[in-house]
């Protein structure tokens, strides 16, 4: 979610831990961030809140939060506790302007984010005070809506994918953005708890990323049980069309999307945004289900790039598939980090923040429109002059 040093620490995002190869680690990590002891003096933006781009779809959107506890599993990072998830449901709302605008972060999460950025925590109100486009508790629009699960990058909280979640909801999807316990630098849980990244230290100490992806795949199956089972945990679960389910993720969250599809046949389609794969698909592949890889156009994720896992996974994908790379993108282009960097006057990828958001929304949204709704999307057939940054690869 944030810029970190190449020598990632346990409390940072640990982007290096999202790729299995040391070479991939160096390329995916961001330029060195200022030491935490030397806070950045960034210019105060004219607007005292982050600017969240308006969703592009036809629906107003609502938001709800769930705390889920899987009593059948112990947490792999803190074995004394059952596995917990925090989930934000973003969904098409029946009417605009209903419900108070949902906050971007909690009051406890915002200072942790600024600490990771090297920004004075006194400015935390600029993040915690930001309101999204979703109305808390708004009644959902009529009908059944396909479900999309979003899994963030390693070390990143679920709010790092807010701009994508809101746009998908405005297009008519119920979106479940997941915080996997002890896998982000700071996530609020009930009881005033702020859980930090225990998993980051475990990964530094040699735990393989496949433990993360397997755990997140199990998290996804449990989440689907709780959202689409006989006794759903969400009050508006009837709004979900359980016959059409997709999953997308950033970094290791994208790798987890593949792992979840391999584990659970309920997931019909998946997207990996710039994450190295940690798992080898079984001989049957994904049973013909569609998958899209969307990554940077640099030496990392182009065919024959430093991250060899994309080259080895590509032929194992046995259904509709796309390998797209984006010129000017960096690893954090595929989440909200460029917007946050812009707000605080910090550098980010050459691709402008608003353009980053637009491209991610366009291609991920088109993918799910085609494969969960059955609506053909010309933008997925090949290069277009409207999006010259995007290359279609077919090695």
Alpha carbon gap, first and last residue: 30 Å
Global shape: globular
- Counted up, domains total 1
Strands, total number: 13
* Helix-residue proportion: 25-40%
Look at the structure and give the CATH class. Alpha Beta
- What fold name goes in the CATH topology slot? Rossmann fold
Structure class: alpha/beta
The whole-angstrom Rg is: 19 Å
Total helices: the number is: 10
Corresponding CATH architecture:
3-Layer(aba) Sandwich
CATH superfamily: Alpha/Beta hydrolase fold, catalytic domain
Task: Please describe the structure with a list of short key phrases separated by commas or semicolons.
395 residues; alpha/beta; Rossmann fold; 11-stranded mixed β-sheet; two-stranded antiparallel sheet; disordered N terminus
Helices and strands in order, then pairings?
Elements: H1 22-28, E1 60-74, E2 82-93, E3 101-103, H2 109-117, H3 125-128, E4 131-136, E5 145-151, H4 162-170, E6 174-180, E7 187-189, E8 193-195, H5 198-204, H6 209-228, E9 240-250, H7 252-263, E10 269-273, E11 291-296, H8 308-313, E12 321-326, H9 337-343, H10 353-372, E13 390-393
Parallel strand pairs: 1-4, 5-6, 5-9, 9-10, 10-11, 11-12
Antiparallel strand pairs: 1-2, 2-6, 3-4, 7-8, 12-13
